[in-house]
Amino acid sequence: MDFNGKCVWITGAASGMGKALAIELAGFRIRLLLSDRDEDGLHETAREVTQKGADVMIRPLDMSDSNAVVSAAEQMLSQVGRIDCLYQFAGISQRSLVDETPLINDRRIMEINFFGSVALAKALLPSMINAGGGQLAVTSSLVGKFGFPYRSAYSASKHALHGYFESLRIENSQHNIRVSILIPGRIQTNISRFALDREGKEYGKMDPGQANGITAARAARQIRIGLQREKREIRVGGRELLMLDIRRFFPGLHYWLSNKIKPV
Q1: C-alpha distances out from residue 116 to 54, 60, 61, 155, 230, Å
Q2: What is the pLDDT of residue 263?
Q3: What are the residue numbers of the active site?
Q4: pLDDT at 89 over 70
């Protein structure tokens, strides 16, 4: 992947890894389309990437509204003509036990993390195929590979992304559609602050493990390198990513450790 001359749409671009990747890519000869529900944050990201020389357009977007997502895709395509890459970071997490989480919270998390991402990818896919190819990246999680306490719906939504986007990649490989699934571990972002508690309110604080994770800027460098190499899965983080190998090669140890790790 050569970013120069490409039109790249990044969701979740007002903060965290989405913002950091926009800044990371701004040094290329690139056009950036930035979306998030936080319009003030979008303007701040746009200001920073513009200073680095990128051509920027912003589009506020709530990923929980699939109809609005499809409409935004249609409008973007009509304005820019072609979108080469779609990198999706928008999402919401959770901090509540299964038996205390109302179904409405499970549905909200799935709507944003899974159906919102699917709706946007489906809306852009035909235009990418007609243009001869494109690149999609969607953000899963370490717990998109295994379950974890206090993350049941969040983990489920990320598992679903793997199944869907791996299928999409296989079906469209002949159309030069490249798909990368990002697997972040502990990254210093606001995702735990905005996570839903059992009442559907914001959790409001950063987890200690996350606070000790790598910076969003370092994560963005790892992601950029993985996207350039067109890796099918891009691991993002530090030592915590060893849990992926432990789960694969030593499942008994993984289950034992899962019961020992403090979830929040």
Answers
A1: 27, 14, 10, 16, 23
A2: 58
A3: 154
A4: yes
Spatial separation of the C-alpha atoms in residues 6 and 138, rounded to whole Å: 18
Altogether, the residues listed in the chain come to a count of: 264
Q: Encode pLDDT of 124-157 as tens digits.
A: 999 999 999 999 999 999 999 999 999 999 999 9
pLDDT tens, position by position, 155-182: 999 999 999 999 999 999 999 999 999 9
Domains of the chain: which residue ranges? Answer: 7-260
Q: Could you tell me which residues are beta bridge partners of residue 10?
A: 34, 87
Question: Measuring CA to CA, which residue among 89, 92, 121, 119 is closest to residue 107?
Answer: 92
Cα dist. 200→113, 148, 159, 196 in Å? 16, 19, 22, 5
Global pTM reads 0.95
Is the pLDDT at 261 greater than 80? The verdict is no
Token code pair at residue 219: 């994560």
Euclidean distance between CA atoms 178 and 53, whole angstroms: 27
Contact 172, 129 (CB under 8 A): yes
pLDDT band at 198 (very low <50, low <70, confident <90, very high): very high
**Pairing state between β 214-215 and 177-184:** unpaired
- For 7-260, the fitting CATH number among 3.40.50.720, 3.40.50.150, 2.40.40.20, 3.40.1700.10 is 3.40.50.720
* Dihedral class, residue 53 (left if φ above 0, else alpha if ψ from -120 to 50, else beta): left
